[in-house]
Amino acid sequence: MNVARSLIPALWMALAVVAFSSLSARAQGCQTSGDLDDAGRNAVTAAGQRYFGMAAKGDVASLRQNSIPSLASDFSGIETTIKDHQPDLASAQANLKGVFLLDGTTPVAHAEFYCGVFGKSGQTANSAVFYLDNLPSGKYGVVLLDANSAKGRTMFSAILQQVGSDWKLGGLYIKAAQVAGHDGDWFLARAREYKAKGQMHNAWFYYTQARNLISPLVFMGTLTTDKIAEEQQAVQPADLPVGKTVDLPEGTATSKLTAMFPVVVGNDLDLVVRYQAADISNTNQAYQSNMAVIKALVAKYPELRDAFAAVEARAVDPSGRDYGTLLPMKDIK
Residue 159 forms beta bridges with which residues? Predict the structure, then answer.
């Protein structure tokens, strides 16, 4: 499968993923459901549940009308997300998992919202931390719902921004809590098995997938995800492109890898590898380059054959446009 595309804008441009907290960050105010009065809690909860109902019906137009202007102006990401998950939501019963009110009226470059009670060792069973970069001044609500149906559990997370007396949609994140019938605990167990076998690359990626399935939001940390992150850091291979580029030799050529991460495709877990490319306008050439990267990667790390159904290489040009090629693992010779 070959796809030429530009990078899709984030669903909410104000949010940036931060893997670990920064000591120089400024803590912002946060209230949990138990901290809010009935009126405040009910208003945020009702808005989140109302937007769930719209998504379950596939009512994209109403969701867009109730969004903040910056999101409404580029709603394609939300529309695609709803279309992909609408069959899972249509027959689901939504159960409230958590409500948080974030006070971001004092803007900072990197904000950390500490929610709930923390102990001397950090997070507790009922606490959470949200890591947000360049957040516009305002008050924000986070409503976490579990949509349970015969097809499984789907995590539905609505990010709201207060506009006057209304809670407008500022971001929407929907993802399945399982991959091919396996939940985050299953991937965590497999990560530990790979670690025990010395397959640290597989272990690293499976720790990543475990966190993805356990946490509804990538910019949210909990006691569970913090513990997984600590385990994951202990197995991080030095030759992974984490916060740096790494070289991948391919015969007489060398590619600079910029990222590697697992991604769910249907019922499969695939591995994506991104690398620098001077130009992707010649798609035949980009395809051949992608194939070379895939084969060189699996040749260097044969353990990947045990952990992934396919590898997708994405050549990324200086403008950020990329060209992807997916190759099933069984076809990688």
Answer: 142, 171
Number of helices and strands in the chain (H, E): 8, 14
Q: Is beta strand 110-115 parallel, antiparallel or unpaired with respect to 26-32?
A: parallel
| Residues across the chain | 333
- Alpha-carbon distance of 92 to 89, in angstroms, equals 5
Residues 6+ apart with CB under 8 A from 46: none
Mean pLDDT of the chain: 90
pTM of the model: 0.84
Contact between 267 and 307 (Cβ < 8 Å) = no
Reported as a pLDDT band with limits 50, 70 and 90, residue 83 is very high
Where helices occur in the chain by DSSP H, the ranges are 38-56, 60-65, 69-72, 76-90, 184-196, 200-214, 223-235, 283-300
Domains of the chain: 11-176 (3.10.450), 184-235 (no CATH), 246-331 (3.30.300)
The pLDDT tens digits of the residues spanning 1-37 come to: 332 322 223 323 333 333 333 333 445 789 999 999 9
The answer to whether 158 touches 51, Cβ cutoff 8 Å, is yes
What is d(CA 214, CA 112) in angstroms, rounded to the nearest whole number? 20
Per-residue tokens: 81: 């997300």
In a 10 Å sphere around its CB, with 0-12 CB exposed, 13-18 middle and 19+ buried, how is residue 20 labelled? exposed
Amino acid, single-letter form, for residue 126 = N
